[in-house]
Amino acid sequence: MAWHFALMIDPAGSGDTRSDFAGTFTEVDPAAPALTVGELSTQRGDGIFESIGVIDGHAQEVEAHLSRLGHSARLCDLPHPHLEQWRQAVALAAAACGAGEAVIKLILSRGIEHGPTPTAWVTAAPAADFSAARTRGIRVVTLDRGYALDTPARAPWLLLGAKTLSYAVNMATLREAHRRGADDAIFTTSDGYVLEAPTASLILRRGDVFVTPAPNAGILHGTTQLSLFEHLEARGFETGYETIPVSELQTADAAWLVSSVRLAAPVTAIDERELAGDAALTASMNAYLLSPRD
Ligand SMILES: Cc1ncc(COP(=O)(O)O)c(C=O)c1O
């Protein structure tokens, strides 16, 4: 059925001055085994990743994703990824994508136990159809993330701001949301502040002001939220990063979960509260997110 693409990368050192990294890439059959059983990514989830949206062969916001990959590597004590090498790998993956929407994944694993280098690879595959979430919206529930707002600063070894491969908790949170009759969840801190969704950032609207939880509280700084804030500012709206108490979810005029592949999903209900939404504004946000962005 659908096309897929996979490229193994021999990671270059940060001081590598080559301009062409083609010799460090090996295209592999995405349906064939490619990792050894000693891989720490599979044994311990010890690694980091990025998911990049692709529209008609154009990879969106590549620099923002590469910069976050570098940030996650720093938090996890992984060797700093050679950004030009990854840029070239992303270009090859994007060239393998056809028309329509796709997703490119970048994965940097700690590698094999006691092995010499990390293991790195890039994949591309068609994206799922998210048109219903973008137009009809999603119902969400708040779920406790189990730590306080100051935990990331007090315990950096928890890697709370890194996009690690350990997404078992995020997936369990989505299952709990489904059990409660919702489509998605908003994580809250144990001391009553709003964080993010398991795979998306949260944006709230209060009048003509758009706010999102400050990314210093152990959440990912979303590339989609960043890009959307630039767009909203260009349209004359005010935007801001705030420490948001859970009670504000009851007074916001509108809310969206935003991420690289699903894009902007309007929130139609938070816990018991129904939200009206603004179909025209959501449509214009998604039209912007679907346009080529660098
Ligand atoms: C936990 C979490 N927060 C936020 C995001 C949104 O990030 P981005 O907009 O860069 O996709 C993601 C994306 O997968 C995520 O997993």
Automatic annotation (TrEMBL):
Q: Which GO terms describe its cellular component?
A: cytosol
Enzyme Commission number, as recorded: 4.1.3.38
GO annotation, biological process: carboxylic acid biosynthetic process
- Top-rank taxon, per record: Bacteria
Family under the similarity heading: Belongs to the class-IV pyridoxal-phosphate-dependent aminotransferase family.
EC top class, as a word? lyase
> Which Pfam families does the record match to this protein?
Aminotran_4
Where in the sequence is the signal peptide annotated? none
* The UniProt record lists the keyword Lyase: yes
InterPro entries named in the record: Aminotrans_IV, Aminotransferase-like, BCAT-like_C, BCAT-like_N, Class-IV_PLP-Dep_Aminotrnsfr
SUPFAM superfamilies, per database record: D-aminoacid aminotransferase-like PLP-dependent enzymes (SSF56752)
Entry GO MF terms: 4-amino-4-deoxychorismate lyase activity
Q: What is the lineage of its organism?
A: Bacteria, Bacillati, Actinomycetota, Actinomycetes, Micrococcales
- Organism (species): Microbacterium laevaniformans
Would you tell me the protein name for this molecule? Aminodeoxychorismate lyase
Does the record's keyword annotation contain Lyase?
Answer: yes
- Keyword vocabulary terms for this entry: Lyase
